[in-house]
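QA checklist item 7 of 12: single-chain prediction sanity check.
[x] sequence parsed
[x] length recorded as 221
[x] structure emitted
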Amino acid sequence: MKKYILSLILIVAVVSCVDDDYKLDGGTSSPYVNMSTYDFLASNHLFDTLVMAIDKAGLKDVVNSDVTFFVTTHFSFRKYIDVMTVRGRAKYNEPNYKYQFDSIPVDVLHDSLSMYIYPGKIERHNMSKEGEVLTNAIGTQLRISLEPGDDYTGDGKPLVEKPEFVFLTYKRGNYWDEWDAKNLPATEIDTKDRIQTSGLISTTGIIHVLPNQHTLFFTKN
């Protein structure tokens, strides 16, 4: 089942401001966004902090080139800032220490944001459940996969054909986990995020939206 919109929450928040013809869960619709990737992000408040980060890192032209961009909402930045605040308070023994967006060095922001950007168009029909490990320009490896979902029934009734979700996975141990691995040690289990909205096609590239629960740069608590 081909689907472009995979989340009720984010389709309301993200897509409704762009194209009212979108349907939930694979309904007939066009995935095309009639604007550049940067302009699409700038048009929605969920991406305000991301747009600020793109500008600060000098990545606007890259984002607007022929790339696939796994984008983060401002919730991911908030989670990252919270994690870094806790780390800073422990490191400096300062209970009032507060990490802020402006605390992120430009070079760190540039390189870390670049891990979400891949050349060319990575679309759902080119993905497999086992996934493909891709290495970006700064050497970060992420696995991109399209996997059947087990936690979706649709109006309380089992589906004959399970919906498929795009996942972005970051390796934690020495080896990649199997795509369907279960009961792995918590210290080694890969960080696997299910994309909320996948397959948006801007006038310049492809956009996949990471979940609000994603912590920026896959930073662990």
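[x] summary fact logged: The beta strands are 67-71, 117-119, 132-135, 141-148, 164-170, 191-194, 197-201, 206-209.
[ ] second reviewer sign-off
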